[in-house]
Amino acid sequence: METAEPAVRGTVPAQPAAYTPTGRTVPTRSAERASYDSQEVHSILDEGYVCHLGFVRDGAPVVLPTLFARVGEVLYLHGSTGSRPLRMAGQADPGLPVCVTVTHVDGLVLARSAFHHSINYRSVVVHGVARQVTDPEEKRLALDALVDQVVAGRSADSRPANRKELAATAVIRLDLTEVSAKTRTGGAHDEPEDLDLPYWAGVVPLRKGHDTVIANDDLAADVPIPSYLKGV
User: 12 falls in which pLDDT band (50, 70, 90)?
Assistant: First the structure.
């Protein structure tokens, strides 16, 4: 689902039809699976809940899972004001060089040989410099987007963050400029000499789903299930 462009102060990147490949976004293996189409990138991002944020701390790589949301051509990531990467991104110059990834596993690919087992997946990798969001209007928009990334429509059906909560919450932004998607689909690619082996080969499809919602024990009996949750 496409999201609206952010109505915030500052530069808002325009949506390109495709992202320009760079030395960091062209894979060295299975390059034919890469895509730079912006709509494909957006669809993969918009379906995700968690991203992995990679950066260098004290000369060593660190990768952290965190919530994220896309608004137009900007990726927002959530964290505590005490979080070290978010503090590092608060430096106006040069910001925090990062790599952000989002991955969906769509199927388990079973081959006749152990070597050719694989998975079907959709992934996005974003490189760039993250900076902390300080503009109050942009920060509120980003936090609403982060809530709606989990359940669409939820930000309008919950209490907004108060001043104390806003002070304890940090958001960083990363422009979608150096971006690529990579996917794998289809079945196993066995060697011709293995095709007659008596082992099952094919795909075990995986799908994202939801069980019946579970209300909090302290929820009043007369509070109905919101309409946006009835379909999940």
Answer: low
Fold (CATH) for 31-229: Pnp Oxidase; Chain A (2.30.110)
Q: Where do the domains of the chain lie?
A: 31-229
- Does this model's pTM top 0.90? no
- How far apart are alpha carbons 165 and 222 in whole angstroms? 28
Instruction: Taking residues 6-19, report their average pLDDT.
Output: 64
Length of the chain: 232
Query: Which helix or strand (DSSP H or E) is residue 220 part of?
Result: none
Q: 21: Cβ–Cβ under 8 A, 6 or more apart, which residues?
A: 34, 36, 180
Q: What is the pLDDT of residues 105-145, one digit of tens each?
A: 999 999 999 999 999 999 999 999 999 998 999 999 999 99
- Of the candidates 92, 97, 113, the one whose C-alpha atom is nearest the C-alpha of residue 200 is 113
Give residue 64's identity as a one-letter amino acid code.
Answer: L
Write a three-state SS string for 8-59.
Answer: CCCCCCCCCCECCCCCCCCCCCCHHHEECEHHHHHHHHHCCCEEEEEEEECC
Query: Judging by beta carbons within 10 Å of its beta carbon (0-12, 13-18, 19+), is residue 159 exposed, middle or buried?
Result: exposed
